Amino acid sequence: LDFLYFLLKPTQAHRPDIMSRILEANKGTPGHITNTYRHQSVHSRCSGAVNWICMLSFPPGVDHTLVQGDVALSKRRNAMKCWSEHCKWGKSYNGLVEVPYTVSEYYYDSEKASIKTAMEMFHRRTCVRFVPRRGQSDYLSIESDLGCWSTIGRDGGQQVVSLSVYGCLDRGTVQHELLHALGFHHEHTRSDRDQYVRINWENIPAVNAFDFHKMDTNNLNTPYDYSSVMHYGRTTFASTLGADTITPIPDSFVPIGQREDMSDIDILRINKLYECSKYRNHQTQNNPLPEMY
Fold it and tell me: For Zn(2+), which residues are the binding ones (predicted)?
């Protein structure tokens, strides 16, 4: 089974945009996997990559509705927007935003290290600190469930961030899901997006139309960011292979959907949303990441 796992993991030679990577991971897990060696069983009632307004079924009593490919709808809020203070993670007395988390023992040490590496950018350039849980009631539970997904913002209690070992552990994908957990939406759903991209509705299946609707977003007086790690790729959810669902305007050749790392504007937004004034204009190099295991 270990050998099969390594065969299924994506290779470095195939480097799709961030949402292609996430959607491939989300659809690529068979409908029912039981890995007796790594002690996990997951079920899916999704019909594939085309239908991502779907239900994921986990152990009894735990289920989530996914929209936009990787956003789990909150069971505690009746809307996706995350403007209010209760949706943000709180600041500590030292001015840092401490986000408690746990990491499943399902991961190998090398996989835990990949998650830790992805967190380091938050620690170097923002006031957000992912800290090991010490009994806090609200925390992120990082697990290898079915695919890559997260809720938007602080949701209360145990809040699952799914980072499947089958394709969700590259740095950009981990950062993408953690940004959702901090309160950020996909870039193409910004309220002002029509000034910067054209949505090609004719290339989008009706079942995926919601994934391209604009949201009532707090844009924090920051520019639209084609380079955001939160941006969909050019062909995400295309009904025809290779067709554009999103086209940048006025320059249609601008790259979108990079998956390497958070952009400078991604980082700026974290610092503005969480009022990390110390980190607005410089990078802190000597701020080590707390031990996670």
Answer: 176, 180, 186
